[in-house]
Amino acid sequence: LSDLPRSELTCNDNNGAGYGFVPRKRARLDADESAGALMAAAAAQQQRMVLPPHGLVFPGDVQSRAVGCGAASTSGRAGNAAGLSQGLLSQLYHQGVEIDALVRLESERMRAGLEEARRRHVRAVVSTVERAAAGRLRAAEAELERARCRNMELEERLRQMTAEGQAWLSVAKSHEAVAAGLRATLDQLLQSPCAALAVAGAAGAGGAEGDAEDAQSCCYETPCGGDNAGADDAASKTPAAALCKACGAGEASMLLLPCRHLCLCRGCEAAVDACPVCAATKNASLHVLLS
């Protein structure tokens, strides 16, 4: 067999050792290996163009690493499937990124809407509270104004009552002075009846000039001492000065105030409003006991 001609296509000399048969699939394997290298380079380039997020591992990455390390594909169909899967994964990744962006956008819109709704609710609550507080404040101010008016009315009434009290106090003091004077006069009259008759006669004579009875009573003197016969005559005869100036018959026993004239009897005193001696208005009267 060594003498036979050798062909380069069918034989291969292994360092001149002899004939050796080389499989015909060697060329196909070389072509598949070059195609796998090209597909690996394309996959690596596409992987560099689209990077997945950290921690995300795709099945194509393992295959790309295997191809990059020198592992050859056994067929062109497997390389095409790997490329298709890599493109599908890249498309899915892009869709996931878009979905995440859309979710974030919608979440931001929802958050903004909720924040605006919360602000509107807070404004509504604050407005309601302000209206309620304003109403209560107006009611309190109205109540305060009514209390202030009532206080002013009470102060004015207090001033009026104080003025009235001062006036009544002055009237009471004047009445006390008049009563003290009348008391002193009555004491004098009760202590000396004869002097009281003389004073009454003098007052009657000074108040009615030209009256004969007044002139006579002014000159009349009641005997305070002497014999018993003169006293009996004086008791039996009533002097004209001691008679009533209204009727002229009764005994003048009523002292008129404020003129202090002893000139009326008890019967005429109720019907007379003015003193018959000085024509002064009668305010009061006192019954004087001369005996």
UniProtKB/TrEMBL annotation:
Source taxon at top rank: Eukaryota
Pfam families according to UniProt: zf-C3HC4_3 (PF13920)
Domain RING-type, residue spans: 244-278
Coiled coil residues, start to end: 130-164
GO molecular function, one term: zinc ion binding
Keyword Transmembrane helix: no
InterPro entries hit by this protein: Znf_RING, Znf_RING/FYVE/PHD
Keywords of this entry: Coiled coil, Metal-binding, Zinc, Zinc-finger
Protein name as it appears in the record: SKIP interacting protein 23
